[in-house]
Amino acid sequence: MSGDREAERAEVARFEAARRAVRGVASAFRTLRLYPLHHARTAEALQAARAALDAYTAGHGSLAVTATGQGLVFDFRTEPYADDVVGDLARAMRARAAPTVQFLRGVSSAELGEFVSALHLSPVQIQRAGGLGALLGAGGVRSVLIETVGGTLPRGADLLEPLLEAVSAGAADRITAYLRQAGGDEATMRELFRTFDRRIVTRPRQAQLDAWKAIGQSLAGLRTPWQAAVCAMIVRSVDEPWAASLASQWPPVLAASLVSQAGGTAQAQGRRVAEVLRTFHRTAPSTPLPVVEPPSPADLQEARTAVAAWDERRLRTQAVRRLGELLPVIGAAELTGALAQLEAAVVVMVQEGDLPGLLAAMNGLTGAAVSLTDARADAVRAMVQRMLSLGAGEVFERTLTRPPDPDHPFVQAMQVAPQETVRVLLELAGDDDRLQVRRRAVDLLAHLAAGRGDLLVPYALDPRWHVARNAVTVLGRIGGQEMMPVLRAAMSHPEGHVRREAMQVASQLGTSDAMEALAEVLLRPDGETQAAAAYWLGVLGRPAAAGVLVAVLEGSPISEQVDLKREVIRALGRLRAPESADALRKVASRAGGELRQEAAAALARLQEGPA
Amino acid sequence: MTTLPETLTRALYAALRQVRHYGPQHPAAEESIRVFESAVRSALAQAPAVRWDVSADWLIVQGALLPADDRHGLPLRDHLTSRGVAHLTITAEADPRALREVIRLLSREPEEVIASGGASDALRRAGVVGIEVEGPEQTRALPAETDEYLAALSAAAALSASVERGDRLDVGRVQLVVETLDPSGGAARALWTQVVLRGHDELDPPHAVNVAFLAMQLARGLGLARPERIDLGVAAFLHDIGMARLPWQDRLAERTRTVRSALPRHAVEAGLLLRHLDGRSSLPMIAAMEHHRVIVEGPSTAAPASQLVALADYVEAMTCGRVGGLRPAGLGGLVTALLAGEGPAFPAVHVRVLAAVLVQAAASGVEVVPQM
């Protein structure tokens, strides 16, 4: 019974001491409303508050008070305490989103002055400063801890500066208090340690070790279940650098006690925690350096040569190659910048004739275009087109001698930008001054566009004759009955080169459609084209064409269109169609010297029999 | 009922104090020794041994840390540490004479204990069985960082922070820092002293600084000219800068010891950050993107600079760790393995140059491999 009475008396005494302490703070808060901070009255009130807090903390440790609607609640009892003075303070705390305040041992008058001054600021000002805790931290207040609600800072963030300061001062009780204030929330604690670690990681190594030692010992001094919880957290964060630093400062022998602290099912976890903590203390492997002969001068020279071989251009090529690897994995915004950079490099590479660089760029772009499926693919394809326009000439001439293997830049370009690839090759093949180049280009295009004649169709009517001519040539190489409509159209192209090329291709096809198309041309009022059509009808070799050829031969007086009629007579000779014999005889008997000779020769071939 | 650590501590401290003040024959001392013996016997009935672990910072009794404000713990801690006692273990083999002897011995003045060759030797000479005293482990002070090294660390941290904020990279500043990491003679030895410490994490600023230093030492060993060494050093300093663009949690999984991809995320991020398509200025981009490729796939398609950075990075990363237990290998063991063709296939001549520069550093007095 006497024990109970004693405990009751102690409880009453503690409550009285706490009541005096908070009344002192509340009085200082009220005094500051009437007088400025450095006024004697205010200083006196702050001094009294400090003395009351000292009296409490000396006997009972730090004092935590929480403001509620009913008044202030102390951390050691649940009933709120309120009077008119304290009520004022409680309202101010709640209005400033700082319901819980902890006064640590050794709090000074200056710190209390900062605290009550801050409580007089408007909530908006406090919010702008990052919360009451941050405001006090910036003001150098270390012994008044604020637990905010709904603040702008993450929980524990405002503890960083006070913690750093406490660690520097080696104040174990303050470190423990701050860590307790971070709460049992593991994420908050982890973030606090992580940020703390990053703040001290550039300090001298010894200073870092000292800092972790201070924290490690503060944690080691905690009672269960806190200690076990913190250890478990360290183990769960075993990958984090700070966890290793912290655990290494933990007395190794304590690891064993964690097993005994954990009971029941937690024992296995305790054992695991202890095991990991012991791992941290394992000695680092220490094998002596091997005895080894240094490399010979020749080896060193070879290595230096290998380094020197990577000149500016080769390094640029390698950089382009690596950029190509980035293209498929970066976002749209980054992609735009990367492509712009690549375009600039392509311009330089074209100027310098840097074929490997251009090949690397092409490979990178085409690889990206294949692997991308969204809008980024379009951007890459557009770049492929620009790339071909900018640098294809250089690439073209040097790569045409290579067999079109799968790595060939145009093979790859064909996969991602076939229309543009076809266009560029057609244009580049158009220069008649470089017949070898043209031939190789056509060969390559015929290989690339095999089975894709549709890609060439639009170009067969291109107003640029060389483009249209080359398209028709390639179409002829690719072959296929379905191309006749295109050839028919090409035979009407304004440029004779194109018309002639189309007729040649048609004659090579040798079909009845081709024959009909050539026959149609033969009836046009263009002597030169008609002559070409007659020639290719002869080459085509279908006797059925003889009728239309005869019609042309007899369609005008013999002395007119001599050139056309010469070609018609020769074609009839090639065809050796018996029904053309009468017409040829007429010419042989009536015409002038040249045509007569041609007709006689044709009749002679006719008599040799069918071709 | 278990014997509390506080009880054991109080009994030991009381016995030491009484014997020290009044001598072992005094009745008060006799009584305190009896109490101590009783406490020890009681504790030994519950555990195979009674053990005090002492350091300047804590006192642990039977695996439990005594609070710093324990009335007897604090003076006992000071008493024992001043006499060179780090661990005191008493087993059931210890008879009353042995307990009396250890109390008598430890109650002497510190100078006397030290003059007698230490408590451990003194107990052995006295034929005490069942009681063991161990002295503190010898710890050597860490060598102080040079100003250049600290400045380089700060630069690495600042660079990382600026990238995290989304600022542009200041490669020019990196070059100024790297130039200070390529000295010769005594200054090089001072840097070697820091680089071989290994007490940092791969994600810490020293990693960038050390990789730059090692890469330039390799280049020096190969006989490359200073401008080439500096270019290489800049590339090495920036090789992991892409980490700064990743969330912290993701960086933990991108350490060299865990990465299996030839192009991990931080290499991609570094490539984007350092994007530059113009000859030697592209080296940082190339090395940042290729250093893991060399480690994972071999050096065949990588630039020589990337191969050197990769070797420096691998050696640095695989031998560092905040605590010894987390370091996969030591410098000596790793170089031995690489020379034997184990691990990533770095060019043999590069590995031999690495071995040579490490041996050279050791010959200049740097403790490349810590003495056990």
Task: Describe this protein's structure.
Chain A contains 32 helices and four strands. With 611 residues, chain A is mostly helical. Among the domains of chain A are: 2-222, no CATH class; 309-416; 532-611, Leucine-rich Repeat Variant (Alpha Horseshoe), CATH 1.25.10. In chain A, strands 2-1-3-4 form a four-stranded antiparallel beta sheet. In chain A, helix 17 (332-352) packs parallel to helix 19. Chain A is elongated, with a radius of gyration of 48 Å. The N and C termini of chain A lie far apart (139 Å). The model of chain A is unreliable at 149-155 (pLDDT under 50). With 372 residues, chain B is mainly alpha-helical. Chain B folds into two domains: 5-134, no CATH class; 147-363, Hypothetical protein af1432 (Orthogonal Bundle), CATH 1.10.3210. Chain B contains 17 helices and five strands. Chain B has helices at 5-22, 27-44, 73-82, 96-106, 110-115, 119-125, 147-165, 171-179, 186-195, 205-222, 226-237, 248-252, 265-273, 283-297, 304-319, 331-339, 348-363, and strands at 49-54, 59-61, 64-65, 87-91, 131-134. Chain B has a five-stranded antiparallel beta sheet. In chain B, strand 1 and strand 2 (59-61) form a beta hairpin. In chain B, helix 11 (226-237) crosses helix 14. At the A-B interface, helix 10, helix 12, helix 13, helix 15 and helix 16 of A face strand 3, helix 7, helix 13, helix 14 and helix 16 of B.
